[in-house]
Write a structure and sequence with these properties.
Length: 208
């Protein structure tokens, strides 16, 4: 049951007021787990792509971790990835496209923000096969002050339990291929590699 205490931290469901803080966590871990603040002039660009739609569309599967300094991590999931992607394209992206035009010129000259703005207009939507076995997906990010304490494992256990209760047969996630710390963490939780694409690795775990 949540909310619940984890030493000096509290695990609870995300609230609408947590969006800014969750975006800050996304930015603070957005360079393959490292702080990406120095790489972005637009502090919301990463969060718009990787966090906001989860908070809006699947609030019962959006968990946040906080301490006395504020939100320091989140665990987000959806039950049906293809349905989530449909809503992401039809509902979430149109306001962002109105906010930011697609970048022009050679892609190799785009800034990190422009690369993300490009995704507002040309989202990269991929699901690993077999989809029927791993239709759900999730992702987890923790700021350094919350790492190495077993908190990520506790958050994952809560999220996987919630997915299982919703009837999900399996779940997948995407991670940067060079994020070796995350790879070791997910391997310990029983995730295995399903596919690779670009600089991403897709891992999956059966839930039943």
């Amino acid at each position: 049951m949540i909310p619940r205490k984890l030493d000096a931290f509290t695990l609870r469901l995300a609230l609408p007021r947590d969006r800014e803080a969750c975006y800050a966590v996304c930015l603070g871990t957005g360079d393959s787990g490292r702080d990406a603040t120095h790489l972005h002039a637009d502090p919301e660009a990463l969060g718009h792509v990787y966090v906001g739609a989860y908070l809006a569309f699947e609030p019962q599967l959006a968990l946040v971790l906080e301490d006395s300094a504020g939100v320091c991590g989140y665990a987000l999931a959806v039950v049906d990835t293809r349905e989530f992607q449909r809503r992401y394209v039809e509902e979430w992206l149109p306001p962002l496209r109105a906010l930011r035009s697609a970048p022009s010129g050679p892609a190799e000259r785009w800034s990190r923000d422009e690369q993300l703005w490009h995704l507002y207009h040309h989202p990269e939507l991929f699901v690993p096969e077999p989809y029927a076995d791993y239709p759900s997906h999730l992702h987890l990010d923790l700021l350094p002050r919350a790492q190495g304490r077993g908190l990520g494992r506790a958050m994952m256990a809560e999220l996987l339990e919630r997915l299982t209760a919703r009837g999900a047969p399996g779940v997948h996630l995407a991670m940067a291929a060079d994020n070796h710390r995350a790879a070791a963490f997910y391997a310990k939780l029983g995730f295995r590699e399903l596919a690779r694409g670009g600089d991403a690795i897709y891992l999956g775990r059966r839930l039943r």
